[in-house]
Amino acid sequence: MIKLLLTDLDGTLTEDRGTYVVDIGAIKALRRAEKAGIRVALVSGNSYPVLRGLHNYLGLSGGLVAENGCFVFHGGVTFRVCETVPREVVSEFAKTFNLRESWQNEFRRSDFGFTPAELKDEMIKWAEERGLVVQSSGYALHLSGKPGGKGAGVRKLLELANVKREETGAIGDSRTDIEMFREAGITAAVSNADPELKRVASISLKLKSGAGVMEFIDMLLS
Ligand SMILES: O=C(O)COP(=O)(O)O
Ligand SMILES: [Mg+2]
To answer: Where are the active-site residues found?
Structure first.
């Protein structure tokens, strides 16, 4: 029995990958899950204020993991998982690789976003030399303090929610969701997901992004 459903946002709750337009049918499916007693949590590379707003206005109750795993909110409690990244380091990364900073960087402390989202070997080396982690979600590059990545944040959320791995479902679209999948019992990759994610998923869905969310929730509720 699934008690908690972890859902990624960009590329998963949206109409497709590469758009920020949320799929209304997917939101309705999340509400159906909540009504049936499955709590829904957002697990995303987005910042805390963006996810907290969505969590409350969409009528979710499972809490959230923001900043690509670095920030957790559950039942009124907030928790920082990763080391803080100094502002000068964020600017230096953008300057070195000629990247644009996300408008959400103003609201972040441990994980920062940049575009274009193309991850290069030199960036990984640059981050490693400074004790940092860099990943790409397909929407943005993420530079984070250690441990970085969705896994550590999801472990903390499950602990706060007092939910076991076997009682947890997860759905996502990108490589950055692999770590989230390792912490969940049933995992579903949308049809347009990165091949690396499909390889580790327990279910490869027939439908893309938001339509895939409806498909997965129908499965969980039937
Ligand atoms: O913030 C991003 O780059 C993408 O966010 P996601 O984890 O919801 O796909
Ligand atoms: Mg995504």
So the answer is: 8 (nucleophile)
Q: Which domains does the chain have, with CATH numbers?
A: 4-80+149-221 (3.40.50.1000), 87-145 (3.90.1070.10)
- Kindly report, residue by residue over 2-37, the tens digit of the pLDDT: 999 999 999 999 999 999 999 999 999 999 999 999
- Whole-number Å distance, alpha carbon 101 to ligand 2 midpoint, is 18
Query: Quick one: what percent of the chain has pLDDT higher than 90?
Result: 100
Residue-wise pLDDT tens digits, 188-220:
999 999 999 999 999 999 999 999 999 999 999
Phi then psi for residue 66, to 5 deg, are -110, 180
> 176 alpha carbon to ligand 2 midpoint, in Å?
7
Q: Pick from 99, 111, 14, 98: which is nearest to 54 by CA?
A: 14
Candidates 10, 15, 115, 174: which one to mutate for ligand 1, based on the most atoms within 8 Å of Cβ? 10
Three-state DSSP at 41 gives: strand
